[in-house]
Structures are given as C-alpha cells and as structure tokens.
Amino acid sequence: MKTLFLLVFLLMPSWAWAVGVLTPNAGDATFMASERASESPAAVMVNGNTVFTVSGGPILIVDLYSICITANGAVASTMQWQSAPTVGSAATFSGASGSLINATAGTTVRIQPTILTTAMTVVTDANGGVQVPIASTGGIIVNAGTIKLVIAVGSTTGTWKHYLRYKPLSPSSTVTP
C-alpha cells in the first residue's frame, strides 16, 4: 500500500502539488506572517530620495540594512529613514547614523528598531561590515506610501544599496524599490 501511494505521488503532475499554496489574496494569517525582502539599486544617497514604495497596506519592517558599494568622499553626511505615508504626515523612524565621511566600499549601516530615535549602527569595511542581529523583535510598522532617505550635511558621493526585510500586514502589502 505504501508503495502504491508513493508511486501515485511521484506520478502526480507538479501543478497538483500547488493545491493549498497561499496566495497574496488568500487572507491567510500564515501568508501574512511570512517575511519578504526588497533591494534597491546602487545609487548616491540624496536627501528626500525615495528608496522603497509600500503599496496595498502596512508592513512590519524586520530589518533595514545599507551597504556602501563605491567609496564616499569627504562630506560628513549622516542618514536617517523617513516614512511618507499616502495618508497622514511624514515622520522619521530612525535616529541619524554616525558620520559617513570617507566611508569605504563594504561599510554598512543598519537600523536599530528599539525606539524611533535610536541611532543606526555604522560598521566600517575594516571590520568586515559585520552587523550584530537586531535585539528588538518588535520591528517598525509603516503604512502604505514611500520610505525615504534623510541625508544631513550633504549628499554622499559614493553609491549605496539598501535591503529591506518585512512582513506584510495585509494580504496585498508589497514593497518595490
């Protein structure tokens, strides 16, 4: 009997295995709890630039990590993140990073979502850009709209990529760069 079951299972078309697979419109809590990710293209960081667009509903930010791709110049820039929702007012949701002056390729910046004013952690490439896992398990909730950079002092001269891990809070919540 076990052999017959195994034979039927192996001969079943692959599309039949997809029965019960969760879809964005299923409204299933399991689907909404699954993490997703988005990645921006490498670009110079300029104050007010939109990095990610949140559509379809709110998301829970699990992690937000940036890496220097090409070296910065001598401008003592700092960075913060801002949510600009489609309904409501824009607000920053991180403290400013330390200075990014002369940041070399491989330097990383990571959000610390303990409270909305906690400074982001900067790790130089000389230390491998290695970041410690986030201690907070709460994350940050942002509504549909855009996630923008707040760059103080002046634009960076180097290019940076940004990586966002998130959980959708509605079945149709998505993030695009």
How would you portray this structure in words?
- Strands 1, 2, 4, 7, 8, 9 and 11 form a seven-stranded antiparallel β-sheet that branches. Strands 6-5-10-3-12 form a five-stranded antiparallel β-sheet, with no helix packed on it.
- It contains two helices and twelve strands.
- It has 177 residues and is mostly beta strands.
- The chain has helices spanning 2-11, 29-33; strands at 36-39, 43-44, 50-55, 59-68, 78-85, 91-92, 108-110, 121-123, 140-142, 145-152, 159-168, 174-176.
CATH arch. level architecture: Sandwich
* Total count of strands: 12
* Oligomeric composition of the shown chains: single chain
Total helical segments: 2
Named CATH topology: Jelly Rolls
Number of domains: 1
Rounded mean pLDDT is 81
Name the structural class.
mainly beta
CATH class: Mainly Beta
Low-confidence stretches: 5-10, 14-23
**Which series of helices and strands comes N to C?**
HHEEEEEEEEEEEE
Computed CA radius of gyration, to the nearest angstrom = 20 Å
Summarize the main sheet: 7 strands, antiparallel
Q: Shape from CA axes?
A: globular
